[in-house]
Please model this.
Amino acid sequence: MAKQIDLSKMMARMEKLYAKDPSKLNKVGLGDKLRGLTESDFLLMPPWWVKATNTKGIPYGKIVMIAGDSDSGKTSTAIAAMKAAQAQNVGVIYVETEGKTTTQDMVNWGVDPTQVFLVQSSIAEEAFEMMFAAWDGFFLDNPDQKLLVIFDSLGNVVSKRDSEMDLTTSNQKPGGKGQINRLGINKLVAKRAEDDVAVLFINYTYDNIGSPGKTNAGGKAVNFFSSLTYQTSRKQWLEKTVKGEKVRIGARVQWRLFKNHIDKANPGPKNVEFDITADGFNLVGSSNEDEGNEA
Model:
């Protein structure tokens, strides 16, 4: 057996160096310090989430993304996360970029809208700027609290640069949104572990031309930094007959596992289906059939 290297003196120096900075001291140590996430590391989600994802919920210090088509339960997931956060006395910042979520939507799901801090802008630069200002302000006033940040949706924003572009000028090219998203996500990644923040990105998908599967909007950075990603699609509307007429009461949606780096060894089923109604999420089935997505 090779002779062991004595790292005790090195560790002692690091402890002395960062004695007055616990946040940095917590980031150094020996290899036996590495551990998996425990229940206290999560914003705990309801049983349907646990069964579908094989995780306890949305982890603090990491990013979860739900991406998919319109009317596929993305915002319903966001509001369900708000409800879970409020039940656990966790603050909520909701960045709403589409202008379609209403106060009544929150109330219908049992969320207290007066306990949700709203940032509403479809301009990427504004949305990120105000989100980070709210983030810093929350911890200035509540230094010992935990926070859930929801961005709904990343793929819907436009760049101020693009919105002000003169399309008659040939040397001006679009692409500001992608750059701003990358810069905003990079800053978020730098901040997420400094505070107890769970991040949920709601996003869109688009079809891959000439190949199976779908691509998540918002650029490569959000895919890279997300620890848990599902792509969602609506399978059918749910209806019931009232006085001889069919009335829409919800939707059946399918989540497809795109990435699970929270638990690589046991990532959960590749495909899960939910019925989403006014009563919430009901898990109706799951399978491990590979349908062409990354995992």
The first strand starts at residue 42 and ends at 44.
